[in-house]
Amino acid sequence: MGALVALASVLTAFLLVSIRGFPRGSALLGAVSVVSAAVFLALVAFVHPSGDDYDFALALRGGGPWSVVSQFYHQWSGRFSAILVTSVVTSLHPLAWACRSALIAVVVIEAAALAAIIRVGSARSVSRAQAAWVALVVMCVCAGSMPSTAEGLYWMSAVLGYGLGFAVLL
User: Fold this and answer.
1) Rg over CA atoms, the chain
2) d(Cα 40, Cα 170) in Å, to the nearest integer?
3) One digit per residue, pLDDT tens: the chain, 170 residues?
4) Where are the alpha helices (DSSP H) in the chain?
5) CB-based contacts of 139-143 (< 8 A; 24+ apart in sequence)
């Protein structure tokens, strides 16, 4: 796993250094972006529960998703929507394939939201393909620049709490 993180970091560093050196539609930069994104998404296969993921699993086993949502709502947690999504996703099959699928889905939703903002912000002068390409580059650069990709991309509570909120905000 360390080698995959190192590879993703090197590819992201290459993106950061080379963005100015390539023409706008460079196939090489696009290929590097796709490979870098694929590495970050492939790391989802190694995701394991951490932090408060265990609390969610225990609470879900004890009372189901609605009791977890009710508990956090009455405690004024402030993460009510994220808790609702986390409870529903993990109740499908706690901390296994549903968790990994949700992480990938949120990253894809974030990239799609970012591409839509780029397209609308450019008054539609940027094509859908160009907007998707720029969104992919931005997502890879952001992922590679995170102080902790484990907490930013692979911790379910953080991804659903902050990542999904970011996508909805866009």
Assistant:
1) 18
2) 22
3) 555 655 666 566 555 555 555 555 566 666 777 777 788 777 777 776 666 666 666 777 777 777 777 777 777 666 666 667 766 766 666 556 666 777 777 778 888 888 888 888 888 787 888 788 778 877 777 777 777 777 666 666 667 666 766 666 66
4) 2-18, 27-42, 53-63, 65-74, 80-92, 97-121, 128-145, 149-152, 156-158, 164-169
5) 139/37, 139/107, 139/110, 139/111, 139/114, 140/11, 140/12, 140/15, 140/33, 140/36, 140/37, 140/40, 141/12, 141/15, 141/16, 143/8, 143/12, 143/40
Is the Cα dihedral 85, 147, 45, 42 positive or negative? positive
**CA 69 to CA 106: how far, in whole Å?**
20
Give me the helix-helix angle, 65-74 and 80-92, nearest 10°: 160
